Model the fold of this input.
Amino acid sequence: MSDVADQIATAEEFTPKPPSDDEVFAELAELRPAAYDRRRKQAAKDLNISVTTLDKEIEALRKSSDEGAEEEGLGLHTPEPWPDEVSGGVLLDEIVDSLERHLVLQEGAAEVIALWTLHAHCYDAFYHTPRLNVHSAEKGSGKTTVLDILETLTPKGLRTENLSPATLFRVIEKYRPTLLVDEVDQFLEPSGDLVGILNAGHRQGGKTLRCEGDNNEVKAFATFAPLATAGIGGVKGTLADRAIPIQMKRATREERVEPFRAHKAVRERDLARKAARWAEDHHDTLCNASPTRPESLFNRGWDNWEPLFAIAEEAGGEWQVRLRRIADKLAAESEDDSYRVQLLVDMRKVFRDMNDPEGLHSATIVERLNDFEESPWSDWGKGKGGLTTRHLAKLLKQFDVHSRQIWHNAKNRHGYLLEHLFDPLSRYAPDLDARTLDTAENLDFSRIPNARADSGLAFENRPNPAETKGSSVLAFGNGGTPWEEEL
Done:
């Protein structure tokens, strides 16, 4: 009997206990209205209470949570959904009109901000939440006003001019706010822990791990949340790669706008309520949306724009066409903020300017790069002494590009061939593929040696290219199938 009792006790010990009523209420309170509506009847049945009682419990819990945030000084506000059905296209037009009354914006920026605003109300319907990067060359350009307006239009808008990693992941875990971070140029380090957390929050399931309590137990903190930043010069590196840029310009004397005052923003508060209603009504559809991708956007770029295109298609009217035109324009105008990609682009310029396809020594490339006034190379390195050959090799190694012995100007030194840039440029800057350099106007073919083994560059058995400009074919590689381009 004792053994039987022990077995029963052991079984009871390892049988998971059902969640308490409070635990179920807390889980349901975290759901968006549409998701809660799907679960409320079954949840009420499981708890053996009426649906009306469950609704009251959840409403009280949500109200308590919001009040708790207010008491802590965060000022978070969840807009109550508009009582009537809302047209997405009309709502977006109204948000654009509101933005343009208070801001001087580049063409298409108001539409992008309006769509991003609507996305903040339903961001959990998407796999990615694009970062909005509001930046300008100088102060006084309206960046802070953009965040002021977004704080009124978005759910649980949380404004701050500074953040620590510990504060960031805890506030996201507890409140799921819309993060509105100003002055990022003053404190955000491109390779710091803060950027790592913001990057992780770009996609569903993003989290950061920390040790908690006396026993240092590992806990995962959710980091998935909408983020808009503002600063001079914009964010850099990996965070810029996850952002849609909005460039601001200081208004001229002729460009008059109305000052924005949050305490008088009755219209914007109504727009926030309408946005909450539209997001609630269309949440399920947006979860399954597959918007058409324009050719100008791919890879990470499409990750950022996909939620906005899904909302534009769902909103109807001309919004899908408008957004496609805006995205194409911004994609064409935007510069890649990755310094590694910038290095590839600048090296391409060096090969073009030197007019020498044989290959260039690393020292020659570095010397030329440090003379580029609009690139960061002259200020590179801890001592700010400029880019060195060692820096160059380290940066290019990330693209699997390695130096080799190059015979140039009667000297044999480590360097790079033009063909080394072909693969990385075709992947990371396809519009600036190095192959476009190989034209009769850019290269003096008379200087190219015939089939020299150490150059990796050879001509097929064709007439001398210096004598037949306009019809030569270049072949790259060591005996394999040649890459060819008719000139």
About this structure: The two ends are 94 Å apart (CA to CA). Residues 438-487 have pLDDT under 50 and may be disordered. The chain has three domains: 2-71, 88-333, 339-476. Residues 339-476 form one domain.
